[in-house]
Amino acid sequence: MAEQANNNPRPMTQSYNKAKAFMDALNELLNIIESIPDLKDGDYLNACNALKTLNDNKTIIIERVRNTAIVVENTQRVRSERRARVRLDDDVRIREGIAERCSKCERVVCKRPDQANGVGINIKAHKERDICSNIYSAKRIALKVGVADLAPYLIVINIIRKWAIATNRPIFYE
């Protein structure tokens, strides 16, 4: 059976022959480009012939590229109208379940779709960050001191925290 297949090859279709000629022309061009420093007259003639083959088939090539599923999909995506972005305020985001308010610093934090035991994973990660601790500390200081401008107090607190971290005294910075 294998001998019969080798003796009687299937006739090639016209589109296959055109595609093969196109690929051969491309490969010829690529080979010539690789050897550009040694460009000879024969190579120049081969490059011109390959370019002529490409030029003869350019309308077919352009049509096939433009009609591929990926190109059509991306063209439709680019030409489609963009949705108008709606900015939601914090209360609406919380009400719609998109975000939740931190119980420690009262910042609004986006929820993640996956939640463990009803508590958002983002809230857990947020509470471990320095910004949450710093806001919480600033609010407690503002209540104790009774002043809205906390910059001088926070400068002193940050100096103490740096000293505590450098001397490994976690009681002052945790």
Detailed description of the structure:
Helices cover 62% and strands 6% of the residues. The chain has 174 residues and is mainly alpha-helical. The protein has a two-stranded antiparallel sheet. β3 and β4 form a beta hairpin. The longest helix is centred in the first third of the chain and has 21 residues, at 14-34. 2% of the residues are buried. Mean pLDDT is 78; it is low at 1-6.
- How does the overall form come out from the CA principal axes? elongated
Q: Which structural class matches the secondary elements?
A: mainly alpha
- Unreliable residue runs: 1-6
Widest beta sheet: strand line-up: 1-2
Rg from alpha-carbon coordinates: 35 Å
Largest sheet: 2 strands, antiparallel
Give the domain tally: 2
What are the secondary-structure elements, in order, as H or E? HHHHHHEEEEHHH
Strand content: 5-15%
User: Could you tell me how far the N terminus lies from the C terminus, measured between alpha carbons in angstroms?
Assistant: 81 Å
Number of strands: 4
Question: What is the helix content?
Answer: 55-70%
The chain-level mean pLDDT equals 78
Please report the number of helical segments: 9
Entry summary:
With 174 residues, this protein is mainly alpha-helical. It is built from nine helices and four strands; from the N terminus they run ααααααββββααα.
What are its keywords?
2 domains; 174 residues; mainly alpha; two-stranded antiparallel ribbon; 4 strands
Q: What is the strand and helix layout of this fold?
A:
Elements: H1 2-7, H2 14-34, H3 41-56, H4 58-66, H5 69-79, H6 90-95, E1 99-101, E2 108-110, E3 115-116, E4 119-120, H7 121-127, H8 130-145, H9 151-166
Antiparallel strand pairs: 1-2, 3-4
Helix pairs in contact: 2-3
